[in-house]
Amino acid sequence: MPAKGKHRRPKSLRLTRTIAVAGTGGAALALPLMGATGAHAATPAAAVAQHTQKSATVAPTAAKAGASKTYAVKAGDYLAKIADDQHVSGGWKKIYSDNRSAIGSDPSLIHPGLKLSLGAKAAAPQASAPAKPSAAKPAAAKPAAAKADTASTATKTAAVANGSGYTLPVDGATIGTNYKVAGSMWSSGYHTGTDFVVPTGTTIKSIAAGTVVSAGWGGAYGNQVVIQHADGRYSQYAHMSSLSVSAGQTVTEGQQIGLSGATGNVTGPHLHFEIRTTPDYGSDIDPVAYLRSHGVAVG
After folding, report:
1. What domain range includes position 216?
2. Which of 180, 225, 278, 295 is most buried, with most CB under 10 Å away?
3. Are 121 and 179 within one domain?
4. Are residues 23 and 103 in the same domain?
């Protein structure tokens, strides 16, 4: 009997443990299933939230990449300057390539008011600040007006400073080839003007008040401007890289009319300057003597 009792008790204990293990196993199986179901149910919501967040982030980027910018050429501009100021990837060659039909065959000949497309890359920095346009536009209008007033004041000051009403066409320049130097390279047999040696991009100024007779391409002279003055004489400025004035425009003494360059028939950048009795080639007189007669010191 005692032996049988001992034999039954272990069986009873084993049965209880088995049930307990089974119970535990059942709970263990149930819990992962419930956990998996919960995770499965939560995944679509999280994925949607993630997708929405990504879309919100990507959309502005895509819009930004597709933006483009139109730039209006201002007085004194030239392609290399525009490329630097506007941070155009590819430089002036990229601007010229994108706007060849508007600029024409000569990349150095651009005029104020010409509209240039700077492409999506140039416009991207502006698109990154969508909140600024409404506040920035009124602020931008003031600097433009202030700049115009400053330029006007500077021009008036220069005119008052020079009592003769005349000034040099360029500042700080040395004379290269003088007037009347003989040579077979010139069709007239001699040099019809005076060359002022200056690097490309130097400001060219009207020597006195007057009216622009012509502004544009002049063959061997490259880009040129011819101005008629009150005394009936005409000043000519040649080989310019860009022009800031147009025919019919009135200019004042010292006003910028363009930038120096090396367009036309030249061996290097300089300003070819003439004084004429008519607006045409062949009516030249000594330009240095003319300037000196009007109180301008020529080095």
Report:
1. 174-293
2. 225
3. no
4. no
